[in-house]
Design brief:
The complex is a heterodimer of chains A (350) and B (325). Chain A is α/β, with parallel strands linked by helices and 350 residues long. Helix content of chain A is 47%, strand content 11%. Chain B folds into two domains: 180 residues, Thiamin diphosphate (ThDP)-binding fold, Pyr/PP domains (Rossmann fold, 3-Layer(aba) Sandwich); 126 residues, Rossmann fold (3-Layer(aba) Sandwich). In chain B, the strands form three sheets. Chain B has a seven-stranded mixed β-sheet with strand order 3-2-4-5-7-6-12, with helices on both faces. In chain B, strands 9-11-10-13-14 form a five-stranded mixed β-sheet, with helices on both faces. A two-stranded antiparallel ribbon of chain B has the order 1-8. The longest helix of chain B has 15 residues. Classes of the chains: A alpha/beta (350), B alpha/beta (325).
């Protein structure tokens, strides 16, 4: 990984963490309402995957998608304003945290019913083939979504018609409060793809470089016309499922492990339900963001002072986003009716 | 004089004419391709346009309807055929949570040129799981348009309008209408897709109906002449939006309203029509509006019982007479 790329990853991951922690604060302040699903711990997935995509590729994602939007280039102001429900939010205040959209950036939305991203991605992939274009679709989903019928229906169709879809599982190992061994007979998500002869790979989702390389490789195959691919990124969310969830069902030792311990060891638990031992915790490395920082320091890409500079710069970005969101006007009911009737094309009903 | 053709042929002609000129249009559904469609609606199109534009799908209603949503988002015009409305229950997430919501939730940033065609209604002894009507569910969803063509001419016009619309449109076709015949004049300019049609003018009573019931209402109106009742028959053609103006104008003249629907009466389309027209025309009504609907019971397999669960011509005649007691 060259210096520019490492720094770009580090910027996005640092921004992602700072943005989400600030969103949590704004939620506590009452500026953000509804459901708020945060991403700390999982940053390596969105950053690694989306940096490997082209601007012409389409992104379909879930309700835990603020970071995907940020990494895709949606300005932090517009994302924060959407969380605040304001008129200059990227969905004009009509979508909120779970429904970020940006047509220009081919950010095709956050979907809040588990299992919806697959058919949307497959449909876009179908359109790409019909139009004979070199584009691809990235379809994010969580580990809890693999037991929805649409997973199997859509993977079957994608494979059957060799559609250019990259399925990316963000396996944070919890379906809200149910741990993966309690919700999936086959907890290795990537193995399920073999039922549809879709090439699949499991990667360390705490390692941004590994995610990036796996995505690059998969997209090369997809653009060569060989059909869909699946990547399972094993990761962990440091917070509860949403702001309404304290996450108390998780053993404190496990949360601590993922925050402090080499995520790879945890990720390789496979079928074992064993949690890491205190020895493992004591000998382990840092979380995905700290890991990337250490890498940058080791490689001589950065000095300690420049990390401080980066953190300050990112804090300023987030602060500006919050200020923008605070000052942004509220949408009106006219805006809401316009959104509903956006495709009526001036037809007047009499 | 235009040729008389079957309702299914009118739909087929509409699709063929549109697909010939617009490559963004493609059809997908179970057995729509090689087989030609369960009711022949897509007959011949697979051979003409190829498998990518007339796509036989696996039995995966939720995902192939969702596929239509994804394709529409990127500017295509998918025409999804769901074999019957009963199977559309498996696709309601795609229809209600996705097609009807995404343009709105994005703040108006995406087109949704999705058409979903589905036959429904009580046909001939198909039993409770294959005889349902779903309009009540879909009417309650803002963001969807619902058309209910009753004649080959309307099938031709309204399907074309649906496919070319950037809004998601549900086309509810009745299984017993596919082999009904009527003239289709392709040279006539179509009325707006939501416009209600006065199929018979009358002075004494307004009968509002849609889909297969529109023809039954017309037959009932002819029988009512002998009873000295001159009934006006309005075919709604669209259930969302509804052409309230045409309905209210008629009620204002006749002062009596009968609503006929095949769907179960409880919380059905007729309830909405009666409520809104009562609000709008309360002072002009001589008597309270009357709803004649299907019985609130799953459809029995037995043929005689099946017929008793939905309005017949004689039932409409009897209901109309009640309004004059």
């Amino acid at each position: 990984m060259d210096r520019d790329q490492a720094l770009a990853f580090l910027h996005d991951m640092t921004l992602a963490r700072a943005f989400e922690e600030r969103a949590a604060q704004e939620y506590m302040q009452g500026n953000i309402a509804g459901f708020l699903h945060l991403y700390p711990g999982e940053e390596a997935v969105a950053v690694g995957v989306l940096h490997a995509c082209e601007a012409s590729d389409y992104i379909v994602t879930t309700y835990r998608e603020h970071v995907h939007a940020l990494v895709r280039g949606v300005p932090a102001e517009e994302v924060m304003a959407e969380l605040f429900g304001k008129s200059h939010g990227c969905s004009r205040g009509m979508g909120g945290s779970m429904h970020l959209f940006d047509a220009e950036r081919r950010f095709m939305g956050g979907y809040a019913i588990v299992g919806e991203t697959y058919p949307v991605a497959v449909g876009i992939g179908y359109g790409i083939v019909l139009k004979d274009l070199p584009e691809a679709v990235i379809c994010f989903f969580g580990d809890g979504a693999v037991n929805q019928g649409t997973f199997h229906e859509s993977l079957n169709m994608a494979a059957l018609w060799k559609l250019p879809v990259l399925f990316v599982c963000e396996n944070n190992q919890y379906q809200i409060g149910t741990e993966i061994h309690r919700h999936s007979a086959v907890p290795e998500v990537y193995k399920r793809a073999s039922a549809y002869r879709i090439p699949a790979e499991r990667v360390d989702g705490m390692d941004v470089l590994k995610v990036y390389e796996a995505t690059q490789h998969a997209l090369q195959q997809i653009r060569a016309g060989t059909g869909p691919q699946l990547i399972e990124c094993v990761t962990y969310r440091f917070r509860g499922h949403s702001m309404a969830d304290p996450g108390s069902y998780r053993p404190p030792v496990e949360v601590k492990a993922f925050q402090q311990v080499d995520p790879v060891e945890m990720a390789l638990r496979e079928l074992s339900l064993a949690y890491p031992s205190p020895e493992q915790i004591a000998t382990a490395g840092p979380d995905c963001l700290l890991r990337l920082r250490e890498y940058c320091l080791d490689q001589g890409h950065l000095h300690e002072e420049s990390i401080k500079d980066l953190e300050q710069k990112v804090q300023a970005e987030v602060e500006a986003a919050v200020q923008f969101a605070l000052e942004c006007p509220e949408p009106t009911m006219d805006d809401a009716w316009d959104a509903l009737l956006c495709n009526r094309n001036g037809e007047v009903l009499t | 004089m235009a040729d008389e053709i079957f309702y299914w042929q009118a739909l087929n002609r509409a699709l063929d004419e549109l697909m010939a000129v617009d490559e963004a249009i493609f059809i997908l559904g179970e057995d729509v391709g090689l087989y030609g469609g369960s009711y022949r609606v897509t007959e011949g199109l697979y051979a003409k346009y190829g498998e990518w534009r007339v796509r036989d799908t696996p039995i995966s209603e939720g995902s192939f309807t969702g596929l239509g949503v994804g394709a529409a988002l990127m500017g295509m015009r998918p025409v999804v055929e769901i074999m019957t409305v009963n199977f559309a229950l498996l696709a309601l997430d795609a229809i209600i949570n996705m097609a009807a919501k995404v343009p709105f939730m994005s703040g108006g940033a995406f087109p949704m040129g999705l058409t979903v065609r589905m036959p429904g209604g009580v046909a001939k002894q198909l039993a409770a799981q294959h005889s349902q009507r779903l309009e009540h569910t879909l009417m309650n969803v803002p963001g969807l348009r619902i058309v209910v063509p009753a004649t080959p001419q309307d099938a031709y016009w309204q399907l074309k309008q649906a496919v070319l619309s950037d809004e998601p449109v549900i086309v509810l076709e009745h299984e017993l209408l596919y082999f009904s015949k009527g003239q289709v004049d392709e040279t006539l300019p179509p009325p707006p897709p939501h416009r209600a049609l006065c199929r018979r003018q009358g002075r004494d009573l307004t009968i509002i109906a849609y889909s297969k019931m529109a023809a039954l209402a017309e037959q009932a109106a002819e029988k009512l002449v002998a009873q000295g009742i001159d009934a006006e028959v309005i075919d709604l053609r669209s259930l969302s939006p509804i052409d309230w103006h045409t309905c209210a104008e008629s009620v204002a003249r006749t002062h009596r309203l009968l609503i006929v629907e095949e769907d179960c009466r409880f919380a059905g389309a007729g309830a909405e029509i009666a409520a809104t027209l009562t609000e709008r025309c309360f002072t002009q009504l001589e008597v309270a509006p009357l709803r004649l609907g299907g019985l609130d019971i799953p459809t029995p397999y037995n043929g005689r019982l099946e017929a008793q669960t939905i309005p017949q011509v004689e039932d409409i005649v009897a209901a109309a007479k009640q309004l004059f007691n």
